[in-house]
Design brief:
The complex is a heterodimer of chains A (571) and B (254). Chain A is an all-alpha fold and 571 residues long. Helix content of chain A is 74%, strand content 1%. Chain A has two domains: 24-286, no CATH class; 319-358 and 377-567, no CATH class. Chain A is built from 23 helices and two strands. Chain A is globular, with a radius of gyration of 26 Å. Chain B has nine helices and ten strands. Chain B has a six-stranded mixed sheet, with helices on both faces. In chain B, strands 2-1-4-5 form a four-stranded antiparallel sheet. The chains are: A mainly alpha (571), B alpha/beta (254). The interface between A and B is large, with 49 and 47 residues. Bound molecules: adenosine-5'-diphosphate and magnesium ion (MG). The site of magnesium ion has 5 residues of chain B, from helix 1.
Chain lengths: 571, 254
């Protein structure tokens, strides 16, 4: 956190009697967070604009969600009330649990490590940070959206039901925020520790894989319009922490008021357990904040300095500027917890999304009117899903200079030409990503039983990845922002979350558009494309990436110092 | 290019942050072969000035020349002649000491064999060889300063710009760094460094400039600036501010 924190009233105020220490409450943390946010805005017009943009986006989603969740009440359809609240609320919790890990990160305006020296009990600290975490645009937006459930309950069961639903919605928001904090904090701890780092990778994979059963459940729900069975599922979900807080209001409306205290108990226990879990990992984050990399490396034959710099996989690289840049980047993709978390995300999402899209489609029975089985296994759909994977992989470089932070000064001082810089970064990232993409293509080919499509798949992946690299070269030079220097790889600055969201969206759309020819060709060219896709995709991707580095490198040369300022965290 | 070309020339450098003036027009000539101390209290603008001088921060006005090469118009030539150790900037600290040196050397276009040889020597002399494969992020503050200095020296620059090189360094390492810099100047190099520690400056420098509130208050050779008095007296006089407490803080002695 870059701002000089003038902690108002956190330690004993010096004006009062020195022996009387005023207790610290959650209110102080909330005030501190608002103060830090305000100071961040000072004199930074674009930050205010970003924040306003975020608020507008949040409001839009809030209103949309509100009407979706209020629909059963507004339409007077009690049959769907339980389903909407159980599934809608459950999805919300799941989103808060998983999305910060995979996409958005968490707002760490108040970095826990900053409180390490203050005489605060763990309980005070956790409740305080928790209260501060509730004061955020996404939390408020989600609260507004779930207000729709209150309306539904009120319309179906009168004021009493509405009141219970309101309590449930607030409790549900507490579950959401506590879950996201506990989850990211725990993973941050694990990714820092060398011992369980690989376990964390596996767990992250499992977490992302949870999307799988969910998707199959949704598919199953859509295929047989058997609402009674779904109601049964919703009822079960309603008893889990995912659905308990959201379904209380409907329970009252449907005459099951006895369920309310039990569900309140489930919710309270969940919140308590999550906060306890969070406090455990908080402690390790506060103590171990100094060292954020793997502590030491294994011994072994120590060669010359140059030999040490180059990883084994880069043995072939020339020992020059390009080679050095690439070797350093390769080391960083593995040694920097923040970058490694990104690599894991690509691997997991890259494998699961295309599998789900393509296999999920074929699982649908053909008697459901639409003959989805052919859609599910067409080269076009495969291309679309793999274009997504390629774009997703390249998006990781959208803030590639932000990963370096002020260390980028070394390259500025050495006067590295922009084109060389960008090409080396692309090459180093590709050392990790291209093999991953190959695995994705092969696994998908085997699972679908279509080895003949391997060319189409690899072609789509390479073309979209290369086009994405080109787009993100520009984004990374023009839209760079600093990342907080904390030990939490999921931490984001206030406002940076919004900035990241905008940039990600922009660059994803642009990259997807750039890769569109692959999809169009797959649709138009038929069987010939099975052979042409790979060479064409390779040439397209490679050409796009090189052209991007060439053009963006020019821009980089002109605004190197500005870029350095942009990625240097303010302190 | 005349013989008396200054190693570093600054003309009218100015920078403001959010309306607050950090550096308000600095002119400075650093003669080749000099050991130049830039003195100033905290927040005087030393880091800002040096960052603009080496091409890390774009000035609002003014320019900088390294041995006659414009840092902002002809950065490639100027940067080849420069070795820089910035302050408050991270190193690529997820590398170990040897890797970091190799990176800097190759980035400067040096021959790998020369890099290997010099890196080994520097690590040895700076007593960083024992750290072995420890990553720089896990170094102590003093060790980080030393490896930073090694990175700046590796390619044999003509001008060395160091921001607070003696901060957080223990006396033994400080003596070592002084010795290295001394040899470097005797060998024909030029050093510019910033500091707020008088003893170091008095001991090392041939020239001094005192910077306060973003402007140069005193400049010249050490004897010119110091005159008959101690450098500390001159510094306190120029900078102003209180140096003793009065009635307040009575509660400190309870
Ligand atoms: N990035 C920045 N944004 C805003 N103000 C800054 C920034 N960098 C420096 N300053 C301000 O400029 C002044 C000079 O800072 P600096 O050059 O770091 O001083 P010194 O190195 O002499 O201690 C200080 O008042 C500081 O607060
Ligand atoms: Mg400074």
């Amino acid at each position: 956190m870059a701002v000089p924190v003038t902690a108002p009233e956190v330690p004993a105020s010096p004006t009062t009697d020195a022996d009387r220490v005023r207790p610290v409450s959650a209110r102080h943390f909330v005030k501190l967070k608002l103060r830090v946010m305000g100071n961040n805005f000072r004199g930074q017009g674009w930050r205010i604009a970003m924040f306003v943009g975020g608020v507008i986006a949040g409001l839009w989603f809030a209103v949309l969600g509100f009407f979706l969740l209020a629909a059963p009440g507004l339409a007077g359809e009690p049959t769907y009330a339980l389903m909407v609240s159980a599934f809608g609320g459950g999805l919300l919790v799941l989103g808060w649990l998983l999305l910060p890990l995979v996409f958005f990160g968490v707002d760490e305006t108040l970095d826990p490590a900053r409180f390490a020296l203050l005489p605060l009990s763990r309980r005070t600290l956790v409740t305080g940070l928790f209260a501060a975490a509730l004061v955020s645009v996404p939390a408020v937006a989600a609260l507004v959206a779930t207000g729709g459930l209150v309306l539904t309950a009120g319309a179906l069961g009168g004021p009493a039901a509405a009141l219970v639903a309101a309590v449930g919605v607030v409790a549900g928001m507490l579950v959401c925020v506590a879950a996201s904090r506990a989850m990211t904090s725990a993973f941050a701890t694990m990714l820092r520790s060398r011992r369980v780092r690989d376990l964390a990778a596996v767990l992250l994979a499992v977490a992302a894989a949870l999307f799988g059963p969910l998707q199959i459940a949704v598919m199953a729900a859509l295929q047989d319009a058997d609402w009674t069975r779904l109601t049964g599922v919703a009822r079960v979900v309603g008893w889990t922490p995912f659905g308990a807080p959201w379904t209380m209001g409907v329970d009252v409306a449907e005459g099951r008021a006895w369920a309310v205290p039990v569900k309140l108990l489930v919710t309270a226990a969940t919140i308590g357990a999550l906060l306890w879990w969070w406090s455990r990992s908080l402690e390790s984050a506060m103590v171990g904040a100094a060292s954020s990399g793997p502590a030491k490396q294994r011994g072994g034959p120590v060669g010359g300095a140059v030999t040490q710099l180059f990883p084994g996989a880069l043995g072939w690289a020339r020992r020059g500027r390009f080679g050095a840049l690439m070797a350093r980047e390769c080391r960083y993709w593995w040694r920097d917890a923040r970058r490694r978390a990104n690599l894991i995300t690509i691997a997991v999402i890259g494998l699961f999304v295309p599998l789900m899209v393509n296999v999920g489609g074929t699982n649908l029975p053909s008697d459901s009117g639409l003959d989805l089985s052919t859609v599910g296994s067409s080269p076009v759909l495969v291309s679309v899903s793999l274009v997504f994977v390629g774009v997703l992989a390249s998006i990781t470089l959208a803030n590639q200079f932000g990963f370096d932070g002020s260390a980028y000064a070394a390259n500025v001082v050495a006067g590295v030409p922009g084109r060389l810089e960008l090409r080396a970064r692309m090459a180093a990232f590709s050392v990790y990503v291209v093999p991953m993409l190959a695995v994705v293509a092969i696994v998908l080919g085997v699972v679908l039983g279509r080895p003949a499509w391997l060319g189409v798949m690899a072609g789509a992946l390479l073309a979209s990845y290369g086009a994405g690299l080109a787009i993100n070269a520009f984004v990374s030079v023009l839209g760079a922002y600093s990342l907080p220097e904390t030990s939490n790889p999921f931490a984001m600055n206030t406002g940076a979350g919004v900035a990241k969201g905008f940039l990600t969206l922009l660059s994803m759309i642009a990259s997807a558009v750039a890769a569109l020819p692959m999809v169009i060709a797959a649709a138009l060219l038929g069987d010939a494309w099975l052979w042409l896709a790979l060479p064409f995709g390779l040439a397209y991707g490679l050409g796009a990436a090189l052209l991007g580095a060439y053009l963006a490198g020019d821009v980089l040369d002109r605004r190197t110092p500005e870029l350095l300022t942009a990625v240097t965290p303010r302190r | 290019m005349t013989h008396e070309q200054p190693a570093l020339a600054l003309r009218g450098l100015a920078k403001r942050f959010d309306g607050k003036v950090a550096v308000a027009g600095v002119d400075l000539d650093v003669p080749a072969g000099s050991f130049y101390g830039l003195l100033g209290p905290n927040g005087a603008g030393k880091t800002t000035t040096l960052s603009m001088a080496v091409g890390l921060l774009r000035p609002d006005a003014g320019g900088a020349w390294v041995l006659g090469h414009d840092v902002w118009a002809d950065p490639v030539r100027a940067k080849q002649l420069l070795g820089v150790m910035p302050d408050g900037v991270r190193l690529f600290d997820r590398l170990n000491g040897a890797e970091l040196l190799a990176y800097h050397g190759l980035l400067r276009g040096m021959d790998p064999a020369v890099v290997d040889q010099r890196a080994a020597e520097l690590l040895d002399v700076l007593a960083l060889g024992d750290a072995g494969r420890t990553l720089v992020v896990d170094y102590s503050a003093g060790m980080k300063k030393k490896i930073g200095l090694a990175c700046a020296l590796l390619h044999g620059p003509r001008l060395l710009v160091l921001d607070e090189p003696f901060e957080a360094v223990d006396p033994v390492s400080a003596a070592l760094i002084r010795d290295i810099l001394h040899r470097y100047v005797v060998g024909g190099g030029t050093v510019v460094f910033s500091s707020h520690v008088m003893e170091v400056v008095e001991r090392l420098c041939s020239h001094v400039a005192i910077l306060a509130d973003g402007t140069i208050k005193r400049v010249g050779t050490l004897t010119e600036v110091r005159g008959e008095r101690s450098l500390e007296d001159v510094f306190v006089e120029v900078v102003g501010g209180r140096t003793a407490t009065g009635e307040e803080l009575a509660w400190l002695s309870r």
